[in-house]
Amino acid sequence: MSPSAVASLRLELSLVRPVLWAATARMWRADSGLPGRYRRYLCTMHQVIRASVPLMERAATRCEALPRDPVAHPLARYLRAHAEEERGHDDWLLTDAGAAGTPPEELTGTVPPAHVAALVGAQYYWIEHSHPVALLGYIAVLEGNAPAPGLAGRLARETGLPPAAFETVRLHADLDDGHSADLDRLIERLPLDAAQRSLVAVSALHTVASLAELFDRITAAPTEWESTDD
Questions:
Q1: How many CB atoms lie under 10 A from the CB of residue 41?
Q2: For 88-144, how does the pLDDT look when each residue is reduced to its tens digit (9 = 90+)?
Q3: What was the pLDDT predicted at 7?
Q4: What would the DSSP string read from start to end of the chain?
Q5: What is the Cα–Cα distance from 218 to 195, expressed in whole angstroms?
C-alpha cells in the first residue's frame, strides 16, 4: 500500500474526527459530574480494551490460515507483536478504578451494553467474514486518538480523585503516538487491493462513530452505566 493511501485514510478520518473530539470534550468538561463520568469511562474502556488482545490474536490466526494471501503474513506478524505490547492494559484500568473508589469486580461483573458490543463486535464480524485487515482501521482510530498530554493531571485536579486513578490515561498519552507511527509504516508496506483499502476505511469510520456514541452515553445517561450515586 502506497504512502498516498495512508494519507487518504488519514484524510477520511480527518473529516469525521471532529465528531469524536466534540464527544470527548463533552465527556471531560469540568463540572460536578466529572468524577462520575470518569468512573463510567474506566468501566466502559475496560469493556473495550479487554477485547483488544483477543481481537488481534483471532485476526492473526485468520491470517495464518491464508498462506497465499500476500497481506496475511506481514499482518499476522504485526498483530502478534502488537498483542504482546497491549497485553495487560485492561488490568491497568482495573487498578485505576480501584484507586478511583470503584471495586474492580464491578467492572468485570458488569454486562457490556449493546453499544460496546457494536463497537468491538463489528471487528469480529469483518475478521471472520471479510478479511482480518479490517482490524487496522479500528487500531488506527483507537491509537490515533490517544489522550492529550496533560489530561491525566487536569482530570486529577478537577475531579479530586487521586493521581493513581489516572495511570492508564497518562501511559496511553505517552505510548500511542509511537504505535500510530508503527501502524502507518505497516499500512505503507502492505500490498492492499482496492477492496481491502475500502474495508480498512469502513472499519475506521465505524469505529469513530461508535466511539463517539459511547462517549456521549457516558456523558448523558449516567443511570444506564452505574447503579450507585457518584
A1: 25
A2: 999 999 999 999 999 999 899 989 999 999 999 999 999 999 999 999 999 999 988
A3: 81
A4: --HHHHHHHHHHHHHHHHHHHHHHHHHT--STTHHHHHHHHHHHHHHHHTTHHHHHHHHHHHHHT-TT-TTHHHHHHHHHHHHHHHTTHHHHHHHHHHHTT--HHHHHTSPPPHHHHHHHHHHHHHHHHT-GGGHHHHHHHHHHTPPPTTHHHHHHHHH---GGGGHHHHHHHHHHHHHHHHHHHHHHHS---HHHHHHHHHHHHHHHHHHHHHHHHHHH-GGGT-SS--
A5: 35
Helix (H) or strand (E) holding 151: helix 151-159
- Decide: 71 and 192 in contact? Cβ < 8 Å: yes
Non-local CB neighbours of 76 within 8 Å, separated by 6+ positions: 59, 60, 63, 64
pLDDT score of 2 more than 90: no
pLDDT at 225: 43
Q: What is the pLDDT of residues 174-230, one digit of tens each?
A: 765 556 788 988 998 999 999 999 999 999 999 999 999 999 999 986 544 444 444
Residue 126 is placed in which grid cell?
A: 469483518
- 35 and 161 Cβ atoms separated by less than 8 Å: yes
What does the buried/exposed string (b/e) look like for 70-86 if buried means 16 or more CB atoms within 10 Å of the residue's CB? Answer: ebbeebbebbbebbeeb
